[in-house]
Amino acid sequence: MSVIHYLLSLFLFCVAFSPLQAQNAQTEIRYYGTGCFTIQRGENVLLTDPFIDNPSATRVLFGKIRTDTNYVKQYLNPAAFAKVKLVIAAHAHYDHLMDMPYLSQYVPDSALIVSSKTSKHLLSYYKLPQELVVVNDSMGTKNEKGEWHYSLDSTMRTMAFKSIHPPHIAGINFLKKRYSHDLIAEPTLVSDWQEGQTLSFMVDWLEDSVVSYRMFFMSSMAKAPFGLFPKELLEERGIDDLFIGSSGTSEYASYPGPIVELSRPKRIFIIHWENFFRKKDQPFKSINANGLEAMQADLKQNCSSETQIITPIPLQYY
Length: 318
Description:
Layout: H1 3-16, H2 22-26, E1 27-33, E2 36-41, E3 44-48, H3 57-62, H4 69-73, H5 78-81, E4 84-88, H6 94-97, H7 100-103, E5 112-115, H8 117-123, E6 131-134, E7 149-150, E8 156-162, E9 199-207, E10 210-218, E11 241-245, H9 257-263, E12 267-271, H10 289-302, E13 308-310
Parallel strand pairs: 3-4, 4-5, 5-6, 10-11, 11-12, 12-13
Antiparallel strand pairs: 1-2, 2-3, 7-8, 8-9, 9-10
């Protein structure tokens, strides 16, 4: 064997048996804040809870809220958005869905938006080119599988599960209305962006019909059995990455124990933790520091030492 052939063989051997985990080498995750991520593997990208804007608390409470397009444009990555094949929205509050009309111009028309009836009725005003699949009648539960919804090229799929939204203040859940008809006027008030059915999602990336990566997304804390999935789904593939909303109320004292115990993921991303009324050029602060610290401590104590716990910083990659 010549020296060149030997060195080439050695190089190929080192590449093939690199100690880097395939998950970290092939999956690029960017956090935009609240529940918004782009998760990319190769040419396949998932967009979650499309909301990048940060309207102030004053605007939210007393004014009109529309996407600040100049603000959002400076932070999004058009290259990643151009590869989006699936969009999931956990519910229809403004901080989970408001920017979809603007972001739709960066997303291929062939991308599938998967959410609730209320989300569809809200977005109907904008006549988006992307199809929105309603999952109220096809979502799963803790004990029953739902229906898989596939990207146009069948390289990605998602299954929605019935979940709930936690109370906002003093045990009261505001903005929980469900729309039954398309909106005839633009939603410009926070009260226009009603919750509808809250969902959690399992999302798979497929290679030759085999699941190569699986994530589970629960952007709002939920009381078990809501938001959970049947354990039998794990027979095909375990959960690589779990995304869970940070703890902020005492009503769900066991959260996130049930979803963590069920999924036993390799990595846990604590999301929707930061004060999203602050602009992204300001220092990031927790919207509920005590709740976040308690969740971090609980996860560290109860998870395997091999589980990586991440509190992502907006605009960073993982």
